[in-house]
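ok so i was messing around last nite and threw this chain in just to see what happens. nothing serious, just curious
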Amino acid sequence: MTTTLEKTLYTAKATATSGREGRAKSDDGLLDVGLAAPKAMGGNGQGTNPEQLFAAGYAACFGSAAAHVARAQKIKSGPISVTAEVSIGPVGQGFGLAVVLEVSIPELEREAAQQLIETAHQVCPYSNATRGNIDVQLRLA
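result:
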């Protein structure tokens, strides 16, 4: 299923040169990182990699989605922390990703926190983009 935006709120623009062994820069200059394949994949590990960038983006986005749901439902969630683990591995002739989102909402009762993260998973743009394409597991810390 393809999703068509009803309205564009923001567009991020970044350019990567030389793949995993190059640089990635945003058009506003706020992101400017050297890239390197991780040692586990035969690289030198002397820079960040696409999986780390994806993990950081997904964690931040999911945390914002959870906070949005809490506000909409008038729930006082307290601080929300999300750790994303992004794994890469072979799939058929290519490569694929798998994600584990570990969410901590210590000020909410466990059942309420679980419901909140399940609803956030339906709202989060990263979750919507990956749904049906990669395995995403939600874990409540």
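not much to say yet. The chain has a mean pLDDT of 96.
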